[in-house]
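Help needed: design a sequence for this.
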């Protein structure tokens, strides 16, 4: 249905004709920056050693599915609650906390807090982003670290972030404007993440050179 010309919610003619392209043009700048930065990035010492000893996987994704499928599943579901809803202001605080007390212990504590406060819709799971940046790579050996952590990270973003808004809106509508069922959904996702955490092991003290 076409909106009338005097409808304040109707996009302007300028926006429809050309202005919608502006964000895409600005994104081209980021592409140029990315192309400039990428050749200047250096590999980690751990990966350099893998290259020197000729232990680089020719098909890292296949190796992850063949030999590290358990870590892949755990990593995906550990991130699930984080992606359903997060509050980034806690990231800087939770990272050092995880270094001191352990990634697994920090995530278990925060995920339990999410379960408890999820029904009240308090977004504590943002604190999971600090230790998560260390935990996911540490689940995998150096030869497949990038592939394994990236696959788990992106699968979790699909299962969590991509569908969460649709499910939340549906639950909000189902509850006639009440956030209760949205909180229940958050708590269920946190329970799944907690189970994955309990099935995993602490990674703080592992040797990342292997």
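Sure. Designed sequence:
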């Amino acid at each position: 249905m076409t909106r009338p010309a005097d409808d304040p919610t109707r996009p302007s003619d300028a926006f429809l004709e050309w202005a919608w392209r502006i964000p895409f043009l600005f994104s081209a700048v980021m592409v140029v920056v990315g192309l400039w930065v990428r050749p200047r990035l250096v590999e980690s010492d751990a990966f350099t050693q893998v290259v020197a000893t000729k232990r680089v996987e020719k098909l890292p994704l296949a190796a992850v599915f063949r030999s590290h499928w358990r870590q892949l599943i755990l990593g995906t579901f550990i991130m699930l609650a984080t992606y359903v809803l997060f509050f980034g202001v806690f990231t800087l605080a939770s990272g050092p906390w995880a270094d001191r007390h352990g990634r697994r212990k920090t995530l278990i504590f925060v995920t339990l807090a999410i379960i408890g406060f999820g029904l009240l819709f308090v977004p504590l799971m943002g604190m999971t982003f600090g230790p998560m940046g260390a935990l996911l790579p540490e689940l995998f050996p150096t030869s497949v670290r990038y592939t394994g952590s990236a696959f788990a990270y992106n699968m979790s973003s699909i299962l969590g972030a991509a569908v969460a808004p649709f499910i939340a809106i549906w639950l909000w509508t189902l509850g006639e404007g009440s956030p209760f069922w949205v909180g229940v959904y958050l708590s269920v996702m946190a329970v799944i993440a907690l189970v994955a955490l309990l099935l995993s092991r602490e990674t703080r003290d592992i040797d990342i050179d292997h």
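The domain at 60-199 is CATH 1.20.1250.20 (Growth Hormone; Chain: A;).
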